[in-house]
Amino acid sequence: MLYLGFGQNSKQELLEKEKNYCEKEYKNRRKNISSPFSFGEDFLFGKESADPIKSLSEFSSAWLDDPSSYLDLKKYSLSKISKKNDLFCFSSILNKEDDQANFYTSFYPKARTNKKVVAIVVPHWNAKRSRYLLGTNIVRNLLLPLSTAIYFPSYEQDNEIEYDMVGPNIGLSLYRFWQDILNLKHFANYLKNDLGFDKVGLVSFSLGSPRALMATIFLDIEIDFLLMNFLADDHTEAVMKGAWTREIAEIIEPHIEYEELKKIWMPMSPGAYTEYFNKLPKATCLTQGKYDLIFGLENARKIMRKFRQNAPFVNIEEGMFGHVTIAQFEKSIPLMIRNARFIRKNTELKLI
């Protein structure tokens, strides 16, 4: 086990920090959440049915029987990718009219590196774009000559709480998950095939990690590295029992049984894809927080066990922090350095 961080807090201190921050955020969001419960069939099927639980369950079962049939880009009309300054964008593959895939890029000059290496960064839920731009700038200018492309779909409005990626609309959450994976695949292909990058990888955080995992497994090109920071085994358990999404769970609970929801949301659960783990690149790393109350302690440990059993080549590190306490300076900087070292080791880039 690798312990990340300069200062070492006790287990009780870390858990208390995690709990207190989650409680504070829960009270703020509970006052303002306006998203009602919905089965959201219209997003997936274009209409509602007489038995939404049955229709959504059948959709999820068919997905799990053959995920590649839903994620094959050849089945979709792909939008042209356009560029304006450092922003690459295209109409989202599933929803060309109302949503746009945005990738905020910073390309490092090849003359400085002799390698064209890019990391697609997949942020966490309700991430602030400015913080990710700052973080990638620190890595690129102080640690590693790495190009970056940060994914922010237009449905995730900066500095606003959006309940699309995770929320009380069951079908919409599935739809956004599906859409994001397709968008990531399309742009990864573009970076490798059209822009000529030597190596393309994905770096993800929290709920961005299941998307990055699925895009990597089902990509047409070979992804060179995958670095996931926080990953849950089961999506339903994370949302319904985790400390960060209580206001969402409270809206959903009166309308559907837990096991029914778990079946419907199973396509978003990384633990359901163990048979595909051997398709991951050898340069795959998972960093978990030992005191993660957002996904749940056992939920986080379970996916680590599944990787050890089904993909022992995956580098697994467990840090002395929680899911939200990683934002503390003394925790985040060592993690940032560790991520940069992992990429350097697996791409032949040199530390600055």
A few lines on this structure:
The protein is α/β, with parallel strands linked by helices. The chain is built from twelve helices and nine strands.
Overview of this protein structure:
The chain is α/β, with parallel strands linked by helices. Helices cover 43% and strands 14% of the residues. The chain contains 12 helices and 9 strands. It has a 9-stranded mixed beta sheet with strand order 1-2-3-5-4-6-7-8-9, sandwiched between helices. Helix 6 crosses helix 7. It is globular, with a radius of gyration of 19 Å. The chain starts with 10 loop residues before the first helix and ends in a 5-residue tail after the last helix.
**Protein structure class:** alpha/beta
Low-confidence runs of at least 5 consecutive residues: 1-7
The coarse silhouette is globular
Query: How many strands?
Result: 9
Largest sheet: 9 strands, mixed
- Mean of pLDDT: 88
Cα gyration radius (Å): 19 Å
Helix and strand succession?
HHHHEEEEHEHEHEHHHEHEH
Task: Give the CA-CA distance, first to last residue.
Answer: 28 Å
Biggest sheet strand order reads 1-2-3-5-4-6-7-8-9
Share in helix: 40-55%
Put simply, the count of helices is: 12
What fraction of the residues are assigned to beta strands by DSSP? 5-15%
